[in-house]
Design goal:
The complex is a heterotrimer. By secondary structure, chain A is an alpha/beta fold. Chain A is 43% helix and 18% strand. The relative contact order of chain B is 0.17. Classes of the chains: A alpha/beta, B alpha/beta, C alpha/beta.
């Protein structure tokens, strides 16, 4: 069984409301409990649903239940479904030791469309994330999902990336197990393919 | 909360402050239509929201914001603004439609309808912009995208493009509600290649003149406006004994233009003496050409205008100019500040006597 | 959702606090659950409803919180264990009934009230600390600090409630409600539930019924006597415990989720041998002997709790009663400014407070890194709150905005609680000019609509949603008819209680368990109350605006109701595919120029519309557009094209 690299290990899964990150955190948390860990999963939602930033904090421990909300500077891993959110989360919870994996596809808020705010140039944004973290990996999750048939697969692909990066005490099978608890038939097959795609992408 | 510019005014607000709130707005409709921020509604120009532009068509084409009279006159006639009686006039005459049905529907001689019918039939124009009072969809098609209000019922005027004589007849003579013509013009898309004719009151014709002087970038191509027919301002016509001032928009006391001096042809009532006729002032080459065709096609019968009648028109027109200068100067307290009227000092002196 | 009804004692599941409450209720043999949706407590009822049939319990969404609690209490009177979960505002709504259950007792079933406070008012109109109601109305108060405790406490709360014959209040906060943690499951009971109301009229020996409150001051005394049994029970409760050195330098007294923050704060500062944590799970009444014992451990005490100095106050009251011979204690907390009086707590804040008390400097992370990253992070754009793509309420607000502006008499709209509450912001064009609690929109309109004698001429539009209508608005509408207040009442009927998670309500036709339910006809109800009722489709902007303009100008007195009816887009989108395929004709789009200035994006603000920077034109965001077609009618140039999908 994979060992826990830190005690507790703090993972943030974040993005924009509607991208499915609550499901992602739930699957990861469920897999951890199955492996005998204490998992704390805190989702922010509510008014965040309507296009606002959302994040799920996942606390992983062998010893005890940790509280919700990772504190400033204590995020070990940030998995982001949206690059500007990766930077926002890094600022709120990250440190120079944080490992960041982010999806490449930006989601423009109406603040940008209306002209009130600007979305940064992608190179500059990724440069900033890289500068203030230990390591940055960019995954073309949405592109891969669209090739698979729909952007709906993005979040499972990103979980794959998280697993494939070997940062969590979880292997592929542990996620397949929780997927099988929830999905069946063709949907399960497609989600498993998405998982494997993510593992492949992060290891490239 | 949102921050709004406190120092600089956005265009519709400038318009409101300088024109509407100052009591200068003649309700010509030049600012509305094609713009979702201004709507004409129940005798008011209503600002529906804030466009945040500091420059815009509404302000530029308003006949009551600064108007360089010489420049407009040069553009249309090739001569500076004279300030004389009835403005530039190649010919003044009396005329009326030869078609009884037309005359039946019209206030006076039906000359406008006759001219437009001829212009349509001869292909000088493909569509005439008029005001109708019917429900939104007619065979002429509703162009005025007053969609932010989307309001039209049979009590509300709407701008229409009439492409056939029958459609014209539905609209002409419907009263002096001419207010939706410019909003319809504003809504004509840039890529339209239809040749257009417009009927307007003097303030509306002045607004068209400002458009010709500095054409809009993203709207109707002003080169397609082939014909501008002006109406003599009818405020006086609404006066019946005892019904003195209620039909007059207060803003009209600041207006200089009785006979729509920037039109190709201006048409007014024949007055009591020539009840069934129209007084017609032909001003431009295009106007003259149309008159010739109309006469040649037998759509119009004409007669010379008696000197006394012409003198009456000239005096009335000059008096209105003088009254405007006087009223504006009284409003500003400064003879040199005539608000929207950009006149040379010589002309101001002439009109101040 | 995990199997909340799984019959596998000893197994571990990852449950959120609300699900754990539900599981605890099941393990206690709950038979009746009634609630009104409210963040952060909504999932308690929906979880129970999902297993209601299988677990032989009645679970319902009630019209509002007070009906829910009354219904639950009725069940408890008849011997059925009952639970009602609600958000903080629900406690305000039920307070009159709650205080009277103190007078009468709650019967043999057992009555548990779970209240979800929302520190920082993340999803609420206000921030409040609901715990005071227990001091105020003499009820026992429990505060769980993990999902496991949530389950165990609720299970115990039923027993406690029966033993004391008082409703037992369990208080959670948002972070506990929505945080998943490991929960070891207990046993599910097999006992049959039999309902019978025991206190019927005995004609030969008639007596006052137990369940009647009344003008008897002695009932309050009797309540106090019953509650007085609690401290002794609490002294032995496993929900109160101390972890740390015997004689720490600093004693933290904490409750709820703050225990986890405190634990982690101490760990971060490496002060495990200097700081001890006493976690109070039974927060009212205080187990005074136990608390006194803890206070004797240290001369410095820091209180860590959410929102108000509730425990801080009651413990200090206790300490004030100690004889002067006891060693002096320095108390730190909200009174001293070490903890904030508003906003939610977190590990960082607690760490800062502990460090301050202990006189050590604490920096969450390197100052230079922090400063530079803060600066760089400014490039991430804000994501302002907005209605969903295709939301009918956005269209309704557009009509309201234009109607009021066209009317030109300085009219305004008063609002209420729901998705449409967002009308106070850009998403609803800032049209909502007043907003307070459920039913307040039409409530204040009743006042504003009766000021004619003072020269008031501004037209008033009151707004409420469909679920809010059933919850709170009917009395105010009756008042408007009866007292002849002049206003237009707009009901946003999107066939859901959308903001809290699309729960059904009496107008929808399904109940909490998903089964068909009778429909209460909103239109007929308003008409029968004497109001003039019109129904509009908010997507028909022309008709909606015209209707409102006409009614605004209508001088005839009497209540006017406009029902803006169209199903919530998120609900519709799950059932059907998009009706239209949208695209922007870039030749017609005028974009930033005069005649538009990005109206569709800048003002109308639907997330389905975006700006193509290179082209300088609007564009449909295909990932977000729901194909509703409304923007076709918004574009002044007719540049947005809709084609039947």
């Amino acid at each position: 069984m994979k060992a826990l690299t830190k005690e507790p290990l703090n993972v943030i899964i974040g993005g924009v409301g509607g991208q499915g990150n609550v499901l992602m955190a739930f699957l990861v948390g469920g897999a951890l409990v199955n492996k005998g860990f204490f998992a704390g999963v805190c989702d922010t939602y509510g008014t965040s649903q309507r296009g606002g930033p959302v994040a799920s904090h996942v606390r992983i421990s062998k010893k005890t239940q940790y509280g919700p909300l990772i504190s400033s500077g204590r995020a070990d891993v940030i998995l982001a479904l949206e690059p500007a959110e990766a930077l926002r989360l890094l600022n709120q919870f990250g440190s120079q030791d944080t490992i960041v994996i982010t999806n490449s596809r930006p989601v423009y808020p109406s603040d940008v469309s209306s002209g009130k705010a600007t979305y940064p140039e992608m190179g500059e944004l990724l440069q900033a994330i890289k500068k203030f973290s230990a390591k940055l990996t960019v995954i073309d999750g949405t592109d891969a999902a669209l090739k698979m048939g729909g952007s709906i697969y993005t979040n499972i692909i990103m979980i794959g990336a998280l697993i494939g990066a070997d940062l969590l005490p979880l292997d592929r099978e542990s996620i397949v197990q929780v997927l099988a608890d929830r999905f069946h038939g063709a949907v399960l097959d497609n989600n498993t393919k998405a998982l494997d795609k993510g593992i492949e992408l992060v290891r490239q | 909360m949102e921050a709004t510019a406190s120092i600089e005014l956005y265009t519709p607000q400038k318009l409101r402050q300088e024109v509407i709130d100052e009591g200068l707005c003649p309700f010509c409709g030049g600012c509305a239509g094609g713009c979702p921020y201004l709507a004409q509604y129940k005798g008011r120009i209503v600002q529906l929201d804030c466009c945040t532009l500091s420059e815009g068509n509404c302000y530029d084409y308003c006949p009551r914001t600064y108007t360089d009279m010489d420049a407009v006159s040069q553009k249309i006639f090739g001569v500076p603004f004279s300030g004389d009686g009835i403005g530039v006039a190649r010919e003044v005459l009396l005329a009326r439609s030869t078609d009884a049905a037309t005359r039946e529907k019209s206030q006076d001689g039906g000359v406008l309808t006759a001219l437009l019918s001829v212009a349509l039939a001869e292909g000088i124009i493909n569509a005439a912009i008029v005001t109708g009072m019917s429900n939104s969809e007619t065979s002429a098609g509703l162009l005025a995208r007053n969609v932010v209000t989307g309001m039209s019922d049979d009590k509300t005027p709407v701008g229409l493009l009439a492409r056939k004589k029958e459609e014209l007849l539905q609209c002409i003579g419907a009263g002096y509600e001419n207010t939706r013509v410019l909003s319809a013009l504003n809504s004509v898309p840039k890529e339209s290649s239809e040749k257009l004719g417009i009927i307007g009151l003097p303030c509306q014709v002045a607004s068209v003149g400002k458009r010709k002087l500095s054409p809009p970038q993203n709207r109707v191509n002003m080169d397609n406006v082939k014909l501008v027919l002006g109406l003599f301002c009818a405020t006086k016509r609404w006066l019946e004994p005892g019904e003195d001032r209620q039909y007059i928009n207060k803003a009209c006391s600041y207006c200089w233009d009785l006979t729509a001096e920037f039109a190709d042809i201006s048409v007014g009532s024949g007055r009591a003496k020539f009840k069934d006729w129209n007084t017609v002032i032909v001003r431009t080459k295009a106007g003259a050409e149309l008159m010739d065709i109309a006469k040649a096609k037998g759509a119009l019968e004409t007669q010379p205008i008696p000197d006394e009648s012409l003198a009456v028109e000239k005096k009335a027109s000059l008096d209105k100019k003088k009254r405007a200068v006087k009223n504006i100067a009284a409003k500003t307290g400064d003879r040199k500040n005539l608000l929207y009227l950009g006149l040379s000092e010589a002309i101001v002196d002439k009109l101040s006597t | 959702m995990p199997g909340i009804d799984v019959d596998a004692p000893g197994s571990v599941q990852l449950l959120m606090g609300n699900e754990a409450f539900a599981r605890g209720a099941l393990e206690a043999g709950v038979g009746f659950a009634a609630s009104y949706p409210g963040t952060p407590a909504s999932e308690i009822l929906s979880t129970l409803a999902s297993v209601a049939k299988k677990m032989n319990l009645h679970a319902e969404w009630s019209t509002n919180e007070i009906v829910a609690l009354e219904a639950a209490a009725g069940a408890s009177f008849a011997g059925i264990p009952a639970i009602s979960g609600m958000k903080q505002n629900g406690i305000n709504v039920v307070s009159d009934f709650l205080v009277n259950t103190g007078m009468t007792g709650i019967g043999k079933g057992g009555l548990v009230v779970v209240v979800g406070d929302d520190p920082s008012a993340i999803s609420s109109s206000n921030e409040q600390d609901s715990r005071w109601i227990c001091r105020w109305m003499d009820m026992p108060l429990l505060e769980p600090s993990t999902a496991q405790e949530a389950k165990d406490m609720v299970k115990w709360a039923f027993e406690l409630s029966r033993e004391l014959d008082i409703a037992c209040v369990v208080r959670e906060t948002t972070r506990l409600a929505h945080t998943r943690g490991n929960v070891e499951l207990g046993e599910l009971p097999r006992a049959e539930k039999k309902a019978y109301f025991p206190d019927t009229w005995n004609m030969c020996q008639p007596t006052k019924a137990k369940f009647t409150a009344g003008p008897f001051g002695i009932l309050h005394y009797q309540l106090q006597q019953r509650l007085a049994k609690a401290p002794a029970i609490f002294e032995a409760s496993p929900f109160n415990y101390y972890l740390g050195p015997d004689k720490p330098e600093l004693l933290i007294i904490t409750s709820g989720i703050c225990r986890l923050f405190s634990m982690e704060a101490v760990e971060r500062l490496g002060l495990q041998d200097k700081v001890g944590i006493f976690k109070l799970g039974t927060s009212w009444p205080l187990p005074e002997k136990l608390v006194e014992k803890q206070l004797s451990r240290a001369q410095k005490v820091l209180f860590v709790e959410e929102i108000n100095p509730f425990i801080e106050g009651s413990v200090m009251e206790l300490a004030a009663s100690f004889p002067a011979t006891k060693p002096h204690i320095d108390f730190y907390g909200k009174r001293t400014g070490h903890m904030t009086l508003f906003g939610e707590q977190n590990t960082d804040l607690v760490t800062g407070a502990v460090a301050k008390v202990m006189g050590i400097t604490y920096q969450a992370r390197d100052a230079k890194y922090d400063k530079e990253l803060k600066e760089a992070a400014k490039m991430a754009p804000p994501r302002s709150i907005n209605f969903c793509a295709g939301c009918p309420e956005r269209a309704a607000y557009w009509a309201i905005k234009n109607a009021l502006t066209l009317d030109g008499r300085d009219g305004f709209a008063t609002g209420d609680i729901g998705c449409y509450s967002m009308g106070f912001a850009a998403g609803g064009f800032f049209q909502e000019r007043a907003m307070h609690c459920m039913g307040a929109g039409i409530g204040v309109a009743n006042g504003l609509g009766n000021l004619k004698q003072f020269g008031f001429t501004q037209p008033v539009i009151a707004m409420a949603g469909d679920s809010t209508f059933f919850h709170a608005c009917i009395p105010a509408l009756i008042n408007g008819v009866y007292n002849q207040a002049n206003f237009i009442f707009v009901i946003f009927d999107n066939s859901a209680t959308a903001m809290t998670g699309f729960q059904p309500h009496p107008g929808v036709g399904t109940c909490a368990t998903g089964e068909p339910a009778p429909v209460v006809d909103m239109d007929a109800l308003c008409r029968s109350l004497g109001a003039k009722v019109e129904v509009c489709d908010p997507f028909d902007l022309k008709n909606s605006t015209e209707t409102l303009v006409r009614l605004l100008a209508d001088e005839e007195p009497g209540a006017k109701v406009v029902i803006m009816r169209r199903v919530c887009e998120l609900v519709r989108g799950r059932r059907e595919k998009a009706p239209y395929k949208m695209h922007v004709d870039t030749d017609r789009c005028v974009g930033d120029e005069c005649g538009c200035k990005r109206l569709c994006i800048r003002l109308f603000g639907c997330p389905g519309l975006m700006w193509d920077k290179e082209a300088g034109k609007a564009k449909i965001d295909e990932a977000l557009c729901t194909g509703c077609g409304v923007c076709t009618d918004i574009c002044p140039q007719g540049a947005i094209i809709k084609e039947a999908a």
